Amino acid sequence: MTTAEQLSGLIPSLFTGLVGEPFTEQEIVFEPLVTDGRASVEIHRLYSTAETGADGPAAAIVRYLPGGTAKPHLHPGYELIYVISGELETDDGVYGPNSLLMMRPGSVHAPRSPHGCIGLAVWERPVQPV
Fold first, then answer.
1. Which residue in 28, 43, 61, 128 is a FRET match for 70, CA 20 to 30 A apart?
2. How far is CA 122 from CA 3, 88, 93, in A?
3. Got the DSSP string for 60-90?
4. Cα 10 to Cα 5: distance, rounded to the nearest angstrom
5. Would strands 117-123 and 58-69 be described as parallel, antiparallel, or unpaired?
6. Are 23 and 17 in contact, with CB atoms under 8 Å apart?
7. pLDDT tens digits, 64-97
8. CA 95 to the chain's CA centroid
9. What is the DSSP secondary structure assignment for residue 11, as one 8-state letter?
10. Would you kindly state where each structural domain of the chain is located, as residue ranges?
11. Is the domain covering 40-129 a CATH 1.10.3720.10 domain?
């Protein structure tokens, strides 16, 4: 079993629906995320700037495969990261399951995961490389 398959067993179920209609389970399909120098990172977009506008918010389930990294980037708006499984590292520490990180506007970080992790990320505005 590959590491991606092992991590997939830790992904929560995703349900979507409209007000007044029943929620239905949706399949979570990941695609490689290589923008801004990321390596061994995958994403399942929940909503993106394609729907909200070029400078709008976005949210996604993000999977860091073991050794996954992102280069330092600036947050012009708030970013929330909820670690679902595994461990996410930043220069400030190591964050395990049920950790909630909040990056304030103007903050810079370079997340990584030596052992792999899955998280929910919500961006108020798109990040900028530094």
1. 28
2. 25, 15, 20
3. EEEEEEEEEE---EE-SS-EEEEEEEE-EEE
4. 9
5. antiparallel
6. yes
7. 999 999 999 999 999 999 999 999 999 899 999 9
8. 14
9. P
10. 40-129
11. no
Residues with Cβ < 8 Å from 37, sequence gap 6 or more?
Answer: 70, 71, 129
- C-alpha 81/C-alpha 58 separation (Å) is 12
pLDDT at 104: 97
- Length of the chain in residues, anyone? 130
pTM of the predicted model, to two decimals?
Answer: 0.87
Across 8-127, the runs of DSSP E, i.e. the strands, are 14-16, 24-26, 31-32, 39-47, 58-69, 73-74, 79-86, 88-90, 93-95, 100-103, 108-109, 112-113, 117-123
Do 124 and 57 meet the contact criterion of CB atoms below 8 Å apart?
yes
Q: What are phi and psi of 6, to 5 degrees?
A: -65, -45
Strand partners, 122: 59, 80
